[in-house]
Structures are given as C-alpha cells and as structure tokens.
Amino acid sequence: NTESFFLRVPKEFPVRSIDQKDSQFSSKISLKHSNNAKITYETEIGLHRLEFIELQHLQVDETYQIKICWSALDPVSIGEMDWFIVPHSTSFEGTISEDARIFIQFAVTNNSYPLMEAGTVVPINVSVINCKLGIPVDLYEVIVYIAIIMASVGFVSKKINLCGMIRR
Amino acid sequence: MILGITLTFIVSRLILYGLIFVAPTGQFDTSTELTLKKLQALGTDDYWNVHLWNKLLSWDAVFFLKGMTSKGKIPRFEHELAFSTLWSSMVKYFAKTDDVYQTLKVAVLLENILFYSSSVVLYYLTRAIFSENNKKQYYGKRLAKISTNLFIFTSASGFLTGIYSEPLSFALTFVGILLHEKSTSTTIPNGIDCNWSRWPFYFLSAIFFAVATINRANCVLLGIYYIVDLLQLVSHRRMLKALFFPLLAGTTMLIVCLYQHYSLPYQAFCPQRGEWCTTQMFDGLPFTKTNFYGFIQSRYWNCGFLRYWTLNNIPNFLIAMPNFVVMFYSTIYFTRIYPSFRVRPLVFVTQAFLIMIALFAHVQIINRVSSFIPLHLWYLADRLLRNSFREQHPVGDDKIVKGYIYWLAFWIPIQTVLFACFLPPA
C-alpha cells in the first residue's frame, strides 16, 4: 500500500552546509549525494501519535515526493500526512538545532477487525524522491521501459496485421 | 487444434514473463520487501527472486500469499475474506510446504495450468454452442479457435502471471456452462428443454457455478442461467422439469452463496463485531441487510453505489472503456443483430455484470474480472470471421473490434509491466 505527497523546498530556505553535524533527531532521511533515499521506519500500533521524520540535505527550490509504503499484511491506514519547517534554534520534540529543519509527519491508525494488538510493531518504508520535470526520478526507468515497449508494439503492429493473425 | 492453443498459450506466457523479468527491479510500492520479511521468506535477494518472483507479489497477491502460507483456515482479519480462501487452500494443499517461494512457485504453476485448461474448455464450449448442426461445424471450429486465441490474450493477462484467483473462477465457470449446454437443448421457435437423462450434468453445473462463486463473488451472476431456464420451463408448463432442473440447481447455488456470504462470516465475527452484525433482519438467522462481501468492500475499499463516480476517477473510467464498449456491444449483437437463444442467459449475465461494475465497483477492475464471461470473445470472433472485416477500412462494429484488438496489443504488455512495477491501476 502506498500514500504519497509532494513538498517543495522554498527558495529562501537557508542552505545547510554539507559538512555540518547532523541533528539529534532520531528518525531522519538524508539525501546527501543522492536524489532519492528510503528508510524502514517502525511504528507501534495503539499509541495514536504523529510520527515525525527529519529530511536532510534537500535542495532549495526543488520538489520531492514523499512516499509511505506499508505491507497490506498490516491493516493500518496512514493519515495526517504533511510537512513543515522548524526554524533554527527552535526546540522540537526535545531536540534543537542551529539550522532550520524540514520534517514530515504522518499518523498510523489501526484499520481492521479485529484490531491489531496494541504494541504491534508495523514497519513502514518512507522514501524521499527528487522530482524532475514533475516526475519522481525513480519512475524514469519504468517510463523509458514502457515507452520502448509501446514503440515496439507500434512497430510490430504496423508490420503485422494483428486481426488477420488472430483470424488465421 | 489443442497443439495450436498450447503453442499460443506458451508463447504468450513466455512474452509476458520475459517482460516482467526485464522490468526494472525498483518497484513504485516498496512494500514487497516488508511483506516478504513478515512472511519470513528466505533468500529474498537471490537473483531469480529479485528479477522475477518478487515482482509477482503486487497488489492483491499479498493477501493470497498470506492465505497460502498461513496455518489457520479462516483469515485473521475480516477484510481478508475478500480474497478467496478456496484458492489459497488449494495452493496450500498442493504446495505442502511453509516455504514462501516454493508456495509462490506452486501458485504460479497452478495459475497457468488453470488458465491453460480454461482455454481448452472454452474451445470446446464455443464449439458446443455454435456448432449445433453439421452445416455450421466449420464455422463453429473457426469461431472456437479465434475465441480461444482472444481469451489467451485477455485484458487480464498481466495479473494472470501472478497468483490471482481469477483462473480458478473462469475454469469453473466454463466447465459449468459447458455442462449446462450439454444437458439442455433448444426447441423451436425459441425455447429450452432439459433432458432427464442428463440431469446429473445440469446439477453439476450448479455445483461448478457455486464453487466459482465461493472463489469470486461476481460469479454469483451465473445464477441467472437458472432464472432464465426456470422462466422458460414454467412458461411452457413443464413444471416437473422446472422443479428438478433450474429450481433445484439454483437453490443449491443460492444455499452455497448464503452460507459463504452470510452464515460463515456471521459465525466467525458476530455478535462481537457489531456494525455489520447489527443489521440482522431475522432473530436467530444470520441474514443481514447487506452481504458480508458487500460490507467489507464498502468498509475497506469504499465500494458502493456511485461512490467511484468522482472526477479524479475519470482516467480509471477511460482504462475500463474498451471492455465496457465491447461487452456492451456483444449484448446488443446477440440480442438484436444476430439473436442467439443459446447465449441469452450469458447476455443477461453480461448486462448485470456491466451494471454492477459501472455503479458499484472500482470500474477499472473490469479488465481483470470480466474474464469469466466469454460473450464478448464470441462477438469479437464472429466479427473477425465475417467477410466485411477483410475490407481495408472497417466500419461500424468492425471498427470497434479492430480498435479493441489493437488496444489489447498495447494494453497487455503495459498492464504486465505496471503490475510488475507495483504501479496502478490495480
């Protein structure tokens, strides 16, 4: 199962130098030297709280797709998805940083009968993917593959009379 | 002829599995690795698992795989009852192992065997229906061959590379229709008669339809066969036959459906479940206002009357359009243009199916779930056989048929790749 949303880093977002020390926040995804990254985040059922993940090394004025995937074997719903900026030197969830920080949030809720037992750990894949030309870069491979297939089918169907072939 | 069907089937399967193998390994929905970890699969990063087997675990396949590898008979969560426990049990029976990949391989093998067997049954079914007299035998054979070829290249092909429950349903459906055909005969001008000597065939058709319905709920529409027969026999005052043929067969099918969609879930979840259980209509009886399948479809997948009719679903309606058009035309074709009494029940089944899909379901699933109805295949095949079709610029129906076949040529590989990459539409 997948839920996703997009975020665009504002132009005026203060650029963080690449060698600065990492924030103390425990859950983070870094795009250092990469245009997409994924972590497996483990959440516990029954706590009804928002989950926060810090995104690091994003580029200003760039759009990113935030993709949250979980196995259909875990009957949960993902909601309250959003992103926000925590200004520099501002405390958040008991952590503080000299730099402005970008966080995403989402909530995991039980969606089944019977309910999953409280405390059940549900692993969730959270991915951050840079978008170019409005398309997440991890989809380019698939798009090219489909384009090749379509071109091949188009070429073959020009050369071969498909209806005639089925009729024969 | 069987050799031809076999070759076509093998070639088509090789092409599709080849496309899956070459498809990028990075899936859009990255949850397959989580599923495999949860099921404690071994060797998830092995070459063949990465390039082929893992790619077959998209969408509903996850639920089927869970059912096939779990120890219990009844699923743990209620929504999992939407995914055939019959099909899962069948694979479990043949696989006889706890190993996830071994089970997956057995499931894929069974899927293909059932798909292939259905193609063969469809060939004989088509001949049985369209070769009633010797004059038409050649026509019947040709029609059967073309219909079977079209069936092998069904719009559900991509999903049928995996472990979906559809092949079991269309195998059971085709055998059921064939048995029904063998036990009835048409009478002049427009009637049907049931032969006492073939009563077992007739009754057996109900068993096949009932099992198909247990496997996939939409097959409940096959009960229309018995309603049509019943009305026919009653109108011709053949009361005894009406009682022992359609009424008995239809009632049997109905009882199985009631058990599957009311009694079984009621016993499993009520009264502690609340919600669905509280809609009980009669005290002491497990009959609720909506059946359990309808309830879970509505509760977990937002299915229901016109719920899918929103602007953002326009692309899904467009994806469903080719099958809608062809299936709709096929009903017109066999009622108004070339009326055929033998396929009349199937015309009603198709019409009811189209209404159900258009108004209550996620419309794009028509490309997958319509595969148990062969009416549109016969329509396409019949048009392809006509002389008018050979003309350079087809018009009318022929234009639709040509357009549909070219759409299939593009759709099947695209659907297969989208499925392998865990991309919509589901």
UniProtKB/TrEMBL annotation, chain B:
GO terms for biological process: GPI anchor biosynthetic process. It is an enzyme of class 2 (transferase). Pathway: Glycolipid biosynthesis; glycosylphosphatidylinositol-anchor biosynthesis. GO terms for cellular component: endoplasmic reticulum membrane; mannosyltransferase complex. Keywords: Endoplasmic reticulum, Glycosyltransferase, GPI-anchor biosynthesis, Membrane, Transferase, Transmembrane, Transmembrane helix. Belongs to the PIGV family. This is GPI mannosyltransferase 2.
